[in-house]
Design a protein that fits this description.
Layout lengths: L1 E2 L4 E7 L8 E7 L6 H9 L6 H14 L3 E2 L2 H21 L17 H15 L9 H15 L9 H20 L5 H8 L6 H13 L3 H8 L19 H14 L3 H15 L7 H15 L7 E7 L2 E7 L3 E5 L7 E8 L5 E8 L10 E3 L1 E8 L10 E3 L3 E10 L6 E9 L4 E4 L15 E4 L3 E8 L5 E9 L3 E5 L3 E4 L2 E7 L3 E6 L3
Parallel strand pairs: 4-7, 12-22
Antiparallel strand pairs: 1-9, 2-8, 3-7, 3-9, 5-6, 5-8, 10-21, 11-13, 13-18, 14-17, 14-20, 15-18, 16-17, 19-22, 20-21
Amino acid sequence: YGLEKGEKIEEVVSGIGSDGTNAFKVEVSQIPDLNLTEHLSRLIHYPHGCMEQSTSAIFPQVALLSVLKEDDESKKQIHSFIKAYLNKMKMLQSHEGGFKLWNGDSYPDLWVSSYVGHAMIEIEKQGYEWPVGMKENWISFQQQRARSWRRPTQNSNRYYRRSEDMVQAYRLYTLALMGKPELGAMNRMKQLTNINTSVKWRLAAAYALAGQKSTAKAMVNQLGMGVEEYDFSALTYGSPLRDKAMILETLVKLEENDKAFEMAIEVAKELNNGSWYGTQTTAYSLIGLAEFMKTRNSDIISFNYQINGKGEALNTKAAVHNIAVNSKIQETFTLNLENTSEEKIYVRIINEGQPKVGLEQPVKKGLNVTVVYTDRDGFPIDVSELKQGTDFIAKVNVAKNGNLRGYQNMALTQIFPSGWEIINLRLMGREQSESQFRYRDYRDDRVMTYFSLPSTKSVSYEVWLNAAYGGEYYLSGPKVEDMYDNRIECITEGKWVKVVPSR
């Protein structure tokens, strides 16, 4: 809702999920279409956890700390997330000083190395210190890579060349943000021909941070703010919207307030247009919007609200104010809200809930996925009814359907019934599978396998299980997805299964 001064709304809100899973929030902001609460929630609860995804979960929360009106409990939660993130960083910094995408990778990911460092610079402003030795090693890694960087040949794929340019520009930006600009490398890059618009904007931001704001403005004065599409196998996990958020960040640093306002509206609108966006795009959009909102912290939001007849009058400089709805309210509530501000305010009601089991819809986009259950000797079995104590194996095969290009960031999620126990062969020192995977995460009720799918091959992965507890349970079908390209996804149907006494 957009409310002018004095306008009111009355809305009856009903839960959308199964019993006990409903949650509500009300978000009031100065900018239309923000929907920060929903996007932050998605990033925080995102089921996968490579270094890019972990950084995308924590970075926007830190960036928004100064503009969100949060309660003390929410702020405590953010700081607990920061501590967990710092512990993860220790495991994923390579000996060279960059950061790996997954534990077990042999080499650091160059984009992620800049992204993590950028996040840590902001986390440091909140009073946290880098783990011992990490900051110096990261700076050294960035400097060495910046100085030795050479642009790919003109014969290389244009998407690849553009991505390589963007990796270098972002690296130079992070060094300038750290107060250690590599002016020689910046000047060499500035002289290159056929540099993409997004890359020029990122390089201009590095010049602005290095104290050369006039150079930065000269670089972008004749530039438009249009951005190009991405090849989804690009090196930067990027999208046109992510690049617009970076341009917004640059406009703020150049104090181009009118243009920044226009771009902020555009970024917010695109983020909430119903399209699918990966973690990088969602996170960086929120980071860019946070940078913009910091410039408007002198504005005041004031409004009166009531939830089921109880409420208060609020007057705050926070760019966004979240109203928590009592968690005991599960079915329905009535919201009354009046804008008492001088300016227009925007109100959004966030309604969350988990759907009932068995309602998932099969999806088949670019992949063929099959699952076969066998006994320990490899003979097929029917899992519709298993005797208690049975050991068996779930074998999933993933193959391409049509497209021959390789997929780099694939995730297989297998969620098992609570009556089945997962046998973690890793703990026994004998983990095995037909195909190589990049990383595997065992949890209480699921196994998540991360892998690359070569251009002409299929892959197969096994999970060992035991029918441990008697009863009837729902078995979800395996889900396979490219985590940065929603055109590649397969969700198979689930079914009900039983575990019966062995006698």
